[in-house]
Write a structure and sequence with these properties.
It contains 11 helices and 11 strands. By secondary structure, it is α/β, with parallel strands linked by helices. The protein folds into 2 domains: 218 residues, Alpha-Beta Barrel (TIM Barrel); 79 residues, no CATH class. The two termini are 34 Å apart.
Length: 310
């Protein structure tokens, strides 16, 4: 299965971020979508820029919200590129047959953004989850919540915002499983390492957000294959004699049940929970029970196992 590649701020590894040339570069690299950030100018235009000020990404200074579009247009956003409006970025993406992911960097942009993307292949996202919910209420527009930590119940946050997808900075196997049970897609960010793309595909990522779509496109297109245990950077995990690593992550991980696993020091030096010795969810009857009862707890499975009522 091919993963969707979303060029972060266009293709910022190839061209100045959030510019029309960056969008063109993303298309040349084989991206499926481009992600752009939007803010409101002083005179009410949606401009494509990440920061609150123009200082980092242009040759000017000042706050975006205190500058008119005419003044923003005079700035050099790098290599002679100008700061585009959302209308221009969306139109170009459409011409290039690219979808567009629009991140609202501020609240209160919902009506304007909806007006620009309605009818397009687009996803509107934000860290402001209330704004994401408002977008959904404005029409048939796909949306996504952005999270930079890994909350206790990220899928519940998406459901509360009525979002179609989650854009997480951090992930674990359970996030993908829980999200997909609710038909919510997951697009981790910002992934620039081909090996990490391969790993996230194994976990079930629907796509990834990347600064460098040229570098990761090939890895995203590769089929998911088994990995020898000794070659896996995340080993030890579930591994039994005669069985290579597969997409067999326990939906209860990390259960932290001392009867089933223990903390170990992984190859990367991090302390993580290992269930290498656990066979509970691999017992055929338990596995079937867990399939039919995806919300079952460790204690439920252990009790059912002891009682033999599976």
């Amino acid at each position: 299965m091919m993963s969707i590649i979303i060029g972060h701020r266009g293709a910022r590894s190839e061209a100045p971020e959030n510019t029309l040339e960056s969008i063109r570069a993303a298309r040349r690299c084989g991206a499926d979508f481009v992600e752009v950030d939007v803010r409101l100018s002083k005179d009410g235009y949606l401009v494509v820029i990440h920061d609150e000020t123009v200082d980092r990404t242009t040759d000017g200074t000042g706050r975006v919200g205190e500058m008119a579009l005419e003044d923003i247009r005079l700035l050099d956003a790098g290599q002679g590129e100008k700061v585009p409006t959302l209308a221009e970025a969306a139109a170009l993406a459409g011409e290039l047959d690219l979808g567009i992911v629009v991140e609202m960097k501020e609240e209160g942009l919902e009506d304007l953004v909806a007006g620009e993307v309605r009818g397009r292949r687009a996803i509107v996202t934000s860290f402001y989850h209330n704004a994401v919910r408002e977008i959904k209420e404005l029409g048939e527009i796909k949306t996504g919540i952005i999270i930079s930590s890994l909350p206790v119940k990220p899928v519940e946050l998406a459901l509360e915002a009525e979002a179609d997808s989650i854009f997480p900075r951090l992930t674990n196997p359970n996030l993908f499983k829980a999200a997909h049970r609710e038909e919510i897609e997951v697009y981790p960010w910002t992934i620039n390492d081909p090996d990490e793309v391969r790993w996230l595909k194994r976990l079930g990522a629907d796509g990834i957000v990347t600064d460098d779509p040229c570098r990761v496109r090939k890895a995203a297109d590769e089929p998911v294959t088994n990995v020898e245990a000794e070659e896996c950077q995340y080993y030890p995990c579930h591994h039994f004699e005669g069985q290579d690593c597969t997409h067999c992550f326990c939906p209860l991980y990390p259960c932290r049940d001392p009867q089933l696993g223990r903390f170990i020091k992984a190859k990367r030096g991090k302390r993580l929970w290992s269930c290498v010795d656990c066979t509970l969810v691999h017992r055929p009857k338990v596995a079937r029970y867990l399939r039919d009862h995806p919300s079952a707890t460790v204690e439920e499975l252990k009790r059912a196992d002891r009682m033999g009522d599976l």
